Amino acid sequence: MSHFEQTKPAPGTRHDVWLGLGFAIPIIVIMGGLVFVPLASTLWDSLFRIDPMRPGTPFVGLQNYAGFLTDPAIRQGWYNTFVYVVLAVILETVGGLGAALLLSRIKYGRRWLLAALVLPWCLPPVVNAIAWLWIYNPSYGLLNGALHAMGLIDQNIVWFNSRSTALFLVTVVHVWRMMPLTAIILLAALQSIPQDLYEAAKLDGAGPIKCFRMITLPLIAGGLAIALSQSTVFALNLFDEAWVLAGPSLDTRTVIIQVYMSAFQNLHFSQGMALSVLTMIVSLIISALYVMRVYRETSYD
Amino acid sequence: MARINLNRICARLGLTAAVILLLIWSLGPIYWSLVTSLTAPNEMMTGTPHLWPPHVTLEHYGKLFGASSQSQGNEVQSVWPQFSAALLNSVITSAAATVVTVLMAAFGAYAFVRLRFPGRDTIFMLVVATMAVPAYTVMIPLYRLMISINLIDTYLGITLIYVSAFLPLALWLMRSVYRSLPISLEEAAWLDGAGRTYTLVRIVLPLAAPGLIASAILTFLSAWGQFMVPLVFSPSLATKPLTVLIPEFVTRNYVDYGLMNAAGVIAIVPPVILVAFLNRYLVRGLMAGAGK
Predict the structure, then answer these.
(1) Residue B260 has what DSSP assignment?
(2) Which of residues 57-116 of B touch A (CB under 8 A)?
(3) How many CB atoms lie within 10 A of CB B282?
(4) Average pLDDT of each block of 10 consecutive residues along chain A (301 residues)?
C-alpha cells in the first residue's frame, strides 16, 4: 500500500495550482453569481426606471437618487436611521466597555457570566423584539407595571405614541442585542494589555482613573475602532427590531425598511436599488474611516 | 488597616452589584418571555407583573403542539401544522447553510493559505470585501434572479443565499486558523509521501477543529436568526422559517402574546444550547473574527 502512496505526485507547484483552483472554484461561482453579479446589476439598474407596474425600463440617469431629497418618507427614514446610529453607538460603546472592564476583573464564574453576556447576541433578533414588544405593551407590559409598582407613574403610558420615545425604545432593543459584540471585542483588547504596565504605573503612584486614561484607553484604541465600526454599520442596517416593534410606521422606519417598502411593497424596484446603493456607500465610507483610523493608530508598532 | 478592609469590601460589593445588574440586563427579557409563556391568559391581563406565574400553565405550548386549540373559549384552528413546518424549515435551512459554508470554508481557506494559484490573493480579498456589502443591496436583483431560475421558496435557493452571505466570515476565520498552524507538521506528512488532500483531511482539519466549530456556530446562529432574507425569499410555508412565522401571530384578530412568547422560547432553544455548551469556541471565534 505504502509504495503506491509514494508514487503520488509530491505537493508540487503544478498540482497545487489545480487543487487550489478546485477548492476555490465553488466559492468563486457562489460569490460571483449571488453577490458580484447582483451587485453590478443593482448599480446598473439603479440608473433605469424598473417598475413592474409601468411599461418599459427607460434610462433615467440619477433621477432615482435625486428623488431622495424630495421624498418626505425617505428623508424621515434617514433621520430615524441617524438617530438610531448615534444613540446605539453611544450606548453600546459605554455599556460594552463597562461590561468588558467588569468581566476582566471577575475571577470566579467568568465563563458563565460571559455566556450570559453573549446570549442576547445569539438569539434571533425577531424573537428578541417580540419579548420586548410584550415588555413595552401599554396595558399589561412589564415596563408600565414596574414603573407603576415603583410609584413613578400613575397612568399607563402608550410608549409608541411619542416619536422620540419610540425611537429610543427601538434603539434599546437593538443595543440589547448588539452590546455583547462590542463587549467581546473590547474584552479581547483588554486581555492583550500586559499586566506589568499597571503594576509599574501603580508603583509610580498612578490612581485607577489615570491608569485607565494613560494605559487602558490608548492600548484598546484598535479594538475600540473595530467595535465602533461594527456598531455603526449594524445600526445603519437596522431592520428586524424596528419592523417587529412598529411595522412600517413612519415614526420608526429606517432606511432599510424604506428599501424593503419601495421594492417589495410598492414594487418600485429601481428606487429601492438606488436607496440601497446609497446606504451601502454610506456604510462603506464609515467603515473605511474607522479602518483608516485604526491603521494610523496601530501602524507605529 | 481597617480602612483598607473597608475599601476592599466596598469594591467587592460594587463588583457584585455590577454583575447582578449585567445579569438582569442580559437575561431579564429572556426570563420574562419564559414567564409569560407559562402564564395563563387571564393572569397575563392583570397589569401587575409577577416574577413567577401564580399558576404555571402549559396552555400556550399546548396551542403550539396541540392538534386542536382553544382561544378565548372558542375552538380555533390549530397552529401546529404551520408551527411544525416552520420549525422544520428553520432547522433544514440553517443546518444546510452551516454544512455547506463550513465545508467550503475549510477547503477554500486552505487553498488561500497554502496553495499557490493565479489570482489567489485577489480572489480572497474580493470575497472578504463582500462582508461590507449589506444583504439588501443585492436583494432585489437576487429576487429577480431567483424567480427566473425557479429557486424562490426552495431550500436550495435559501441555502445558496445564506452561504453567499455567511461564507466570507467563515473563510476569514478559517484562514486565520490555518495561518496560525505550524507548517512543519504538514511537511513531515509530505515527506512520508502523503498528498495534499490527505494531509489536509487527516492532519490539518483535526488541528483546526476549534476554528471549524466556531465557524459552524457563527454560521448556524446567523442563519437561524435570519429574518429579512426569508421575508422576501420564503413567501410560503414551503420554506418559511420560525422567524418569519412568529411575527405573523400578531396579524390575527388579536395579538396572542402568550403564544408568541411560547414560540419564541422554542426558537431560542438551539442558540441557548450552543451558548451553554460551546460558548468558548463562539467567543474565541468572535474575537478572532473581529481582531485581525
Answers:
(1) H
(2) 104, 107-108, 110-112, 115-116
(3) 24
(4) 43 77 92 92 87 78 80 90 95 95 87 92 94 88 86 85 92 96 92 86 84 84 86 91 89 91 86 89 84 63 42
Which among A5, A17, A102 has CB closest to B117? A17
Of A23, A128, A237, the CB nearest to B110: A23
Q: Which three cell numbers stand for residue B56?
A: 404555571
Mean pLDDT of all residues in B77-95: 90
Report the CATH fold assignment for B80-291: MetI-like fold (1.10.3720)
Map out the domains of chain A with their CATH numbers: 10-45 (no CATH), 63-298 (1.10.3720.10)
Q: What is the pLDDT of residues B14-66, one digit of tens each?
A: 889 999 999 999 999 999 999 999 988 887 777 677 788 888 888 888 888 87
CB–CB of B116/A16 below 8 Å?
Answer: yes
Dihedral angle sign, alpha carbons of residues B128, B130, B133, B139: negative
